[in-house]
Write a structure and sequence with these properties.
Length: about 260
């Protein structure tokens, strides 16, 4: 049986630090997935709806007003999926869209329905791409991060591994953007031991930063899902992390799944 892998890719990685979605980033993801599909069933959790919309329209006040952000997300989501579809198709990969909110994870019926949909999509060889349903829920666009959402998805489908693709190699003993001598932590088994390492710098994008990744790790560790933070700026980052060819942070759980 194939293992289950969730890949979370955020706005900063998708835009490669610019204000446009990078086709090269989506291509690199697709190329890796072609290889990964031999051993893994895959779910992508992708942000980027608002960033995609910005290439077409700027609804006034969208940086501050939540309803403007929601409208931007609604416009950008279809275009983001078009981008994924166009690029993934050239690699022979099929995609499907799933939009969820936190509330869905509190409802056993919704959990069961989501699980059934994902399993059926895998059976017919489609890759589910999840984002938050920003129309009905505003937690993520207020806090600006899909890390926790991806941990919840990983938990309900009993994933073997969640990979958070970030703009950094992993968690360091200090924020490396502020301290040049910061050292990467390769393995975390106890979250308490790393709490003091988080040192958010002021972010204009208002993202969840490292704190939301720790929160995601907490959900994963409680539910025996291994979680990695991997640097999306490195070539072939998932394949190389799997072969231990690049530095990254691994949040270990005690229970190893078959
Ligand atoms: N101890 C730490 N180790 C690594 N990064 C840290 C640490 N403390 C704070 N950070 C910040 O967290 C950022 C990564 O989170 P985030 O910007 O949300 O990434 P992404 O957009 O890829 O999800 C880093 O770029 C860094 O500025
Ligand atoms: N759901 C929204 C916002 C989510 C968001 O910004 O998350 P992230 O890129 O992980 O910080 C979107 O797709 O634009």
């Amino acid at each position: 049986m194939k293992k289950k892998l969730i890949i979370k890719i955020g706005t900063s990685t998708l835009t490669a630090g610019t204000n446009r979605i990078s086709f090269a980033v989506i291509e690199s993801l697709a190329r890796q997935i072609v290889e990964l599909k031999k051993d893994y069933e895959i779910v992508i959790v992708s942000s980027g709806a608002i960033a995609t919309a910005r290439q077409f329209v700027e609804i006034s006040g969208y940086q501050k007003r939540v309803d403007s952000k929601q409208a931007m997300a609604a416009i950008g989501q279809t275009k983001l999926m078009e981008l994924y579809d166009g690029i993934f198709r050239t690699f022979g990969l099929n995609i499907a869209q799933i939009l969820l909110t936190y509330r869905d994870f509190e409802n056993p019926v919704a959990i069961e329905n989501t699980r059934n949909t994902i399993n059926r999509l895998w059976q017919v060889d489609y890759i589910p791409i999840v984002n938050e349903n920003d129309t009905v829920s505003i937690e993520e666009i207020m806090l600006g991060d899909n890390d926790k959402l991806s941990a919840l998805v990983a938990t309900i489908i009993d994933a073997n591994l969640l990979v958070l693709v970030s703009d950094i190699d992993g968690i360091f003993n200090q924020n490396p953007h502020l301290h040049s001598d910061a050292k990467l932590i390769a393995e975390v088994t106890d979250l308490e031991s790393i709490m003091n390492f988080i040192e958010e710098k002021e972010s204009t994008l208002g993202t969840g930063g490292m704190s939301s990744k720790i929160h995601a790790a907490e959900i994963c560790m409680t539910n025996s899902v291994e979680m990695w933070i991997v640097n999306g700026q490195r070539a072939n980052y998932i394949i190389k992390a799997l072969h231990n060819e690049i530095p990254f942070t691994r949040f270990k759980t005690e229970k190893v799944k078959k």
